[in-house]
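Action item from last meeting closed. Structure (154 res):
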């Protein structure tokens, strides 16, 4: 039962279109969203609308802040086509790189943890850095530093 009285509005259309792209294999664009693991995690239109509010203008559409992230609270916004062009997986824009410098002792501790969990130290560093970057509200590529903390030679 629909109680929000917004069926037919641009906001509701954005909700249904995004959900379809993620959940229905026959939907237009499914292969670029649901087909590659993007999920629609809003349980209802009310939650979606509480997150985004009214569409600012007819030029705006729903955009995921972290391109490979899900449609979820904290990762959606209204954006213009120009903003969305710069938030694509293949936009060709040179992105700033974050260099992580850690102390040798920290690296050795991470190495011990990684061996105990069957993963590489670089994977732990990448996950930690990606989490920090996301929490800061940025979307970026990550570059790992050498274990000694020195910059890599180019």
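Sequence:
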């Amino acid at each position: 039962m629909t109680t929000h009285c917004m069926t037919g509005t641009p906001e509701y259309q954005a909700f249904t279109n995004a959900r379809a792209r993620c959940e229905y294999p026959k939907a237009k664009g499914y292969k670029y969203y649901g087909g590659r693991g993007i999920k629609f995690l809003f349980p209802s239109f009310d939650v979606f609308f509480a997150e985004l509010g009214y569409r600012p203008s007819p030029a705006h559409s729903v955009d995921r802040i972290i391109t490979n992230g899900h449609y979820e609270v904290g990762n959606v916004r209204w954006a213009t086509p120009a903003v969305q062009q710069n938030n694509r997986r293949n936009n060709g824009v040179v992105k700033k790189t974050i260099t992580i410098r850690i102390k040798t002792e920290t690296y050795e501790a991470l190495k011990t943890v990684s061996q105990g969990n069957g993963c590489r130290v670089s994977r732990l560093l990448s996950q930690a850095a990606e989490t920090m970057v996301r929490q800061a509200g940025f979307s970026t590529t990550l570059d790992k530093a050498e274990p000694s903390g020195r910059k890599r030679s180019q």
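Note appended to the action item: The first strand starts at residue 61 and ends at 64.
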